Structure formats: structure tokens, C-alpha cells
Amino acid sequence: MSTFQCQHCGRSFNVPQATLDKYPSWQPKTCLRCRSPSGSSAGTGPSGRKTGSAPKRLPAVTARGGAAEATLTLQEVLATYTDGPTTGVFTDGAAHPNPGAGGWGAVYVVEDEIIAQEYGADPQTTNNRMELTALIAGYRLVPPGRPAVMMTDSQLCVDTINTWAAGWEKNGWKRKRGEIKNLDLVQLLYQLSRAHPQIELRWIKSHNGYRWNEYADALATAYRRAVP
Questions:
Q1: Using CA atoms in the order 157, 158, 163, 165, what is the torsion angle rounded to 10 degrees?
Q2: Cβ-contact 91, 150 below 8 angstroms
């Protein structure tokens, strides 16, 4: 474990040696708090990707069959949850109503350290499009050739890529029963999965109290906390 001083807030913070060994050219300059979008200003991870400032919260809304979506900020998630896998790529997407305004988020962590993250929103979309968009972003966060586990709470997305897409491709991207919805995103995601066979796509239960799963949810719903 090595200690560094945050160039933004001045606090000391630790980085596991295993993480530094995996990224030998990385010199951490900001602590986890300042690298998170909910910090007072933007920072960067070892990938050089920027993290934006987090929006404020709005009242809770319901989606996904009526279940209340979390309204915690990123810092509140980190302070509340500690369980679950500490390494991997966690993604989530949401829309309310469905279809309606939506958002997506993806975070890549190694031993509880944020390596890179992305999030965004769409004023008119669907929950499934946001889930697919989050996974596409997640694949792009992982350095080429590096093994990783990609986690999503969308069983539909997992089945689409792991089970059905190969057959659809062989059939000219057609299926026997109806159209393939969100074909543009499905094709791109499948292409990325084929290009990165070392990344395992895996389903994870939503709102299960796992820190980085909840964090991805907070990224995906960040647009709801924005002040116009």
C-alpha cells in the first residue's frame, strides 16, 4: 500500500500496490473523493478520462415495475455500501417513464479503486437502450487485452449477447419472431464482446447492496438529480 497526497484537496490517500503494479505509468494525483463526479470539481483516473461534477438530488421516482430507484449521490453510495466484488466493470441504465428520459453509467474498478467511469443521459429513450449503452461504454473502459468481468442487472442484455446474438448474426440479423429491438446497439455491443473475448459478461442482481453495483445505479440516475 502506497500513500499519496491529493493535489486537489490536500488529503493523504492510499493505493494498493497491486493496482500500481498493473498501471506502472500511473501517478495518482487525486483521491477517490475528488475523482468522483459528486466531488466539488472534476478529476481524472489513470485512463485520463474526465469525471464530471455530480448533479443534486431530486425527489425519488419509481421505475422498473414500480420499484423505487435509489436517489443517493455517489459519495453517499461509497459511504453506505462496502459489500460485493471489488474488481470489475459495473453498468446500469434507467428510464422514467419507460420510454422517457433516461441515463446510463459504467464504472471500472480494481481492488475498490476507480480506474475509469462514464455516464450520460438521453431526453427520450428506453430502459433497454440505456442498459445497452452502459455496457458499450463499459467495454471501452477496459484496456485492450485485459481480462475483466462485466456486470449488469439486465438479464435481457446478458442473454442477447451470450446466447442469441450469434444466431441472429448467422441469420442476417433476423429472428423468427418479430424484429430485433435496438438492433444498432445490439450489433455494436456484440462486436465489442467478440473483440474482447477476455471480458466475461455476467448478470448481477439489482439493488443488492453491492457497493459498485449501487454506484453504477447512481451514475445512471445522475440526470434525475440535475438542477435545470
A1: 40
A2: yes
Q: Which triple of cell numbers denotes residue 44?
A: 481524472
Read off φ and ψ for residue 12, nearest 5 degrees.
Answer: -85, 145
3-class DSSP assignment, residue 146: coil
- Judge whether 104 and 130 are in contact, CB under 8 Å: yes
Strand ranges inside the chain, DSSP E: 2-5, 12-15, 43-44, 50-51, 62-63, 67-68, 88-96, 100-110, 113-125, 148-152, 199-203
**Residue 209, CB-side half-sphere exposure with 13 Å CA sphere:** 2
CA 182 to chain centre: 19
CB 220 within 8 A of CB 74: no
Q: How far apart are CA 103 and CA 66, in angstroms?
A: 17
- For 176-222, write each residue's pLDDT tens digit: 888 999 999 999 999 999 999 999 999 999 989 999 999 999 999 99
pLDDT in tens, 141-178: 999 999 999 999 999 999 999 999 999 999 999 998 88
Q: What is the pTM of this model?
A: 0.72
Measured between alpha carbons, how far is residue 127 from residues 6, 117, 224 in Å? 37, 20, 14
